[in-house]
Write a structure and sequence with these properties.
The structure is a homotetramer. By secondary structure, chain A is α/β, with parallel strands linked by helices. The first copy, chain A, has two domains: 128 residues, Rossmann fold (3-Layer(aba) Sandwich); 164 residues, Dihydrodipicolinate Reductase, domain 2, CATH 3.30.360. Chain A has twelve helices and 14 strands. A seven-stranded parallel sheet of chain A has the order 3-2-1-4-5-7-6, sandwiched between helices. Chain A has a seven-stranded mixed sheet with strand order 9-10-8-11-14-13-12. The relative contact order of chain A is 0.14. Chains in contact: A-B, A-C, A-D, B-C, B-D, C-D.
Chain lengths: 352, 352, 352, 352
């Protein structure tokens, strides 16, 4: 068997870090060589996530302590907070230009420097890299990703919305100014940093929307939807919090163009994803549940008639930590390192 | 103090029955005299709902065993399943015509016999009573309810959607063919009868839609919305199940007519509900959470700008067992028996 | 009707503060006049707990800003953190010596200054008050409480364990060195301050013990159990966290003395609590569930035979925010102000 | 690579059936050839468990329709209800005597015909097979299992209690008449058949014990503990239900014999499991959480001092569907078919 590729994970003490470790520990072609977590440096991964205590893993170190030039890493996953990411990756890729990077933050998803500056309120700190970065929605940009050095892993909400909508926008099958995306997320999407609003007793036994009308994920959606439609697209998008750990679930309301009905929209999606290993389109009229993709890298999509003539309802669901983050990151890695795309991420969902 | 009114509850072993008992046990003007539950007849209420074991309540009996003519009940709540309800209430009101009734089923909500036949596949079994029944959305039909003998308590989903939308439709402030209601419900809405799809392990840690495109609550919404708008209204409506016990949460997407913006829609709702004890409109741009109405008879409503120009997002939430069922039923009872409308149902929500 | 008593709540932004407001808003004999919350001062209670937005309540102020001498409060509930409490209450009772106090912290529960110093690592900051304080387990110390100025409201775990065990220890019916208390708590018991270990995603879908072998509640249990038994009693006690908001549930394993069997233990408890409004002993062999006391001030107790000859299993459950904190605090207030003990806290549990 | 072994699963529509499919779909040495589910016969596995819709699996058939003699199965997992199991397996092993069987029911766990008759109220229907069956706790009976044709997979509660206690009983390190096992289970342990008491709204937001004093798992524990201790052992055991899907968590209270303290008990367990791939003993004084073994085949064990002198607290946790059922069944299969014991079941836990 070929030698294993050497992998690093920056920011291993968060949930996406833990999910990367879960998936990579059993990936047959790679070896985890580096785990960083600034505040937990010196500790074992099993101190931060006890499920890993029985496994042999490198101790957590600070990013500062890493000598990139000699580290010899083939690929680095970056799960750091916004902004820090830009500085760190500039440093990594300067000192170790042959290392490949999958970045899980939002920092390299926007391709237009002006758009970045508008949404984030400052100029990008690594403009050259921003230009180089490839948007990592594998089902759409597979060819570019295979050749990329730096891939910007898409967001969880946006992956879930793009997979059903992009083919329809490209086919000009739906009206682009009547798209409503009512999105729901599990709580791990909010991360592991303590905040009152994600305490158990604030989240359980209830439901709410947040960031109504001004959610940051919008920028990424605007970019990709407009590209697909060939004109500016602005959608209605409302994120909600569900008292569950994992899952993104999007209920999408669309109106067909030129009398396209739900069946015809279904046919487009069905054809598009026939051979994709990680997108499954249910039989027409059947709708997926988030729990049936839990822990897997799958996206399940359903299409049905709406009661309103001329409209259809599309439901799309995935696991925010897997296909919505770390699973898709490994899928990107597989493409970048020339492995079969499903390697290490083909386990079925865990339900119940 | 005036003598207490005598109350009966038909179908006391379900969740709406338990919620009625919870509210009525501390209602200062009434006394529970009769509790029926056919399959649990002979048992104490505390055997069926142990929280009531310490309280003095009549034993459960079968409906058959009740002698309506001599029972002397002032008002009966009917929480029986669909269809049974019609036969039972015909019998009750024939033998005890002075008794008042609040029916919690859907059986008397449709006022048009043809609509009933179309949605339920058979003619109504109590056509005279159907004609007599008053639709019990107190905030809209208070005057009629005060004089009614038979009130049809609205459904939980429909109450939650009507309170924000009816004033806007009446004011012709929104386009009636672009209304999208993305509704979410807690699991108690599905009742207490064992079914695989509402087992704990099927519902927890996940999210899903059900009945997409053909939900029965539609009939009631169509009726009331069309009445309010003065023309036929058909809305998009998708119900979802949230892993929580109580709560209805509706995210409603609307487009203003004649350039009405979100602020103007807000003003209409704000004015409408200023003096209503059970509807609270939050400051503009703030959105409610279902947990903050849990166990109370309140509906909380929020209005915000949508990203799409010309559109607004409205969120409405209530507790499906309280304002969405038994609390509203007691509110109806209070109106029918001449009590202050808030009597016995003015406790604040229980959060956390 | 008599004039309403004036009430203050110190520390109103935590869960026990919210529970006090929930209960007192509908208490017929009192009026909330003061709410403090240092970090939220200036805000409305409805900003901190949106369920109270529709109600008329005083704005939150800092403790510092209160002029105790002129505030004219009849009774103050103190829901402040450990240590702060001692300083604040010394100040309050010096400046307003006629004000009564129910303290919900652990600061005044230990009566022996040495025991306090041992468990908390420093001398008590208000030794005079420590001497004056009455332990507020109403079912045991009702007479003293009626005359008290300062009552130390018992902890939730300890209330749940004392109610079943103290009568048995007093009757010398069980072996005091073989008591095992396996206790489980809902997450609200951990408070509202952000901490990683009580985030939703850390708590849901799992179960764990904490503080095994060295939990601080021990001191209070040791004190009261030893007093009841007339000799030093040290019990095994393990607290666990349940993914639920409210509830304490204690499974208690005991061995009878002198061949006392489970039935005889049951008889002692049954007799003891026959007339207590807030303790309900189930029929022998039936066991309570935490959900059936949720939101009420009840404690439910069950007794059954163990498989091991000579041993019995006792289960005791209450709502940690109600009987385990704020409900019991109101019960204490009722006793101290001469109201009927059940006033304002007699609502049945909310299940489901 | 060697040819894959042919596997059948009887009773594939329950949770343990789904968990077997999840694990076997990615097991490199076996192929699922047969899935039975009497009531769902004719349907695809993806109709019963939608997470499997994208995978290629045999359709569900009735047991009756299988021709065992020609089926050519190497091994059959039997996940049928109690009693049915005995009749079916007698038939299978008569017609296909070379097929191996791992039975997940309780039917073959008791080795003494008299004990079986006492606990189940009737004579065993397959006495010869009962004699032949090997008890499948791999860590204890590995050698016998490797040669066995019929293995009785242990129960989830009992696996969780035996792994920590059997080494201590064998070493005569604890008093056998003072063992208290306070056990907690996730809801999947109750199966998928609709019952009121496991509906979401009956289970969420609460905690309770069940079967206090007379739980059937006792028989299996009595058998194995008595065998280990060399004398009759009867333990206190109370099962509880936790509002979570997966997990068994046992808090075990023991008293050391001849002054054995907690550290010495720890040393025994630590030594015993040093090389076991699926049992991990935490550092002394640290306690495991059920969520950290979720979806994995691991058992985590912690030992700490009790406050009561001479006593220790041991906590043991596993996933009831994996190590407590289907994972352990695959572990047994691996041993019986000569595969490395960890094949296909070595994935880390999924947390969060």
């Amino acid at each position: 068997m070929a030698e294993k590729k050497k992998i690093g994970i920056l920011g291993a003490s968060g949930y996406t870090g833990a999910e990367l470790v879960r998936l990579l520990l059993r990936h047959p072609r790679v070896q985890i060589e580096l785990l960083t977590a600034d505040r937990r440096a010196g500790q074992a991964m099993g101190d931060v996530f006890p499920q890993f205590a029985p496994y042999d893993l490198p101790r957590l170190v600070t990013i500062e302590s890493v000598d990139w030039a000699t580290a010899g890493l083939d690929l680095v996953f970056c799960a750091l907070p916004h902004a820090t990411t830009q500085t760190v990756l500039k440093d990594v890729l300067t000192k170790a230009p042959a290392t490949k990077v999958v970045d899980l933050s939002a920092d390299f998803r926007l391709q237009d420097p002006a758009a970045y500056a508008k949404w984030y309120g400052h100029e990008h700190h690594a403009l050259e890299l921003q230009k180089e970065a490839v948007y990592g929605l594998v089902e759409m940009y597979r060819r570019d990703i295979r050749k990329a050095r730096l891939v910007a892993n898409p967001g969880c909400y946006t992956t879930c919305a793009q997979l059903p909508l992009i083919p329809l926008l490209k086919a000009k099958a739906i009206k682009s100014d009547e798209i409503v995306i009512d999105a729901k997320s599990g709580v791990t999407g909010a991360g592991r940093s303590p905040r009152e609003d994600i305490l158990f007793s604030e989240v359980s036994e209830g439901f709410h929307a947040y960031g109504v009308g001004h959610h940051r994920h919008m920028a990424e959606l605007d970019q990709e939807f407009s590209k697909a439609a060939g004109k500016e697209v602005v959608v209605s998008f409302t994120p909600h919090l569900v008292p569950m750990n994992r899952g993104i679930f999007s209920t999408i309301y669309v109106r067909g163009r030129r009398d396209k009905n739900a069946q015809e929209l279904y046919a487009i999606l069905s054809r598009q994803y026939e051979k994709e290993p990680f997108v499954y389109v249910l039989p027409f009229g059947r709708m997926p549940q988030s729990r049936h993709v839990r822990g897997s890298n799958m996206t399940f999509i359903g299409v049905a008639n709406d009661r309103q003539p001329g409209r259809a309802i599309i439901i799309s669901t995935l696991d925010n930590l897997t296909k919505g983050a770390s699973g898709q990151a490994v899928q990107n890695m597989n493409a970048m390192l020339g492995f079969a795309e499903t390697t290490g991420i083909d386990q079925p969902a865990m339900f119940p």
